[in-house]
């Protein structure tokens, strides 16, 4: 399975001159799965787990932010590579949405955001649910 979203193509629809219909492409669930940068989320979970904890059992906040920043930078690079395989142009909207989805997933996991006084698990969970559902509704233009 390719990580690039299959955008489908436009086809003439019916007798109306100039009308077109999108044919093929990934469905809603396929788009959601391809917008979520699960490989980088997994890398983040693995690398953040290596950070030692303080005496009170909490991880070092600065180190958590550094790991988060490095992994955040990897998301667009990874998706640039993943969407340009087979000599295709980059799918910039997928790169952008994956780059938005990554910090939302880390926010839901807690990560460095737990170091912020206002962080609440329930807010992170609702944010994750809303963003994940919402990004799947975006369908890239056919043929892109």
Task: Count every helix, treating DSSP H or I runs of 4 or more residues as helices.
Answer: 5
Order of helices and strands: EEHHHHH
* Order of adjacent strands in the largest pleated sheet: 1-2
Distance between the termini: 18 Å
Write up this protein.
- The protein has one domain (27-135).
- It is mainly alpha-helical.
- The longest helix is centred in the middle third of the chain and has 23 residues, at 61-83.
- It has a two-stranded antiparallel sheet.
- It is elongated, with a radius of gyration of 19 Å.
- The chain contains five helices and two strands.
Short description:
With 144 residues, this protein is mostly helical. It has helices at residues 28-35, 38-48, 61-83, 92-109, 121-135; strands spanning 9-12, 20-23. It has one domain.
Task: List its salient traits.
mainly alpha, two-stranded antiparallel sheet, 144 residues, 2 strands, 5 helices, 52% helix
Topology:
Blueprint (H helix, E strand, L loop, with lengths): L8 E4 L7 E4 L4 H8 L2 H11 L12 H23 L8 H18 L11 H15 L9
Antiparallel strand pairs: 1-2
Helix pairs in contact: 2-3, 3-4, 4-5
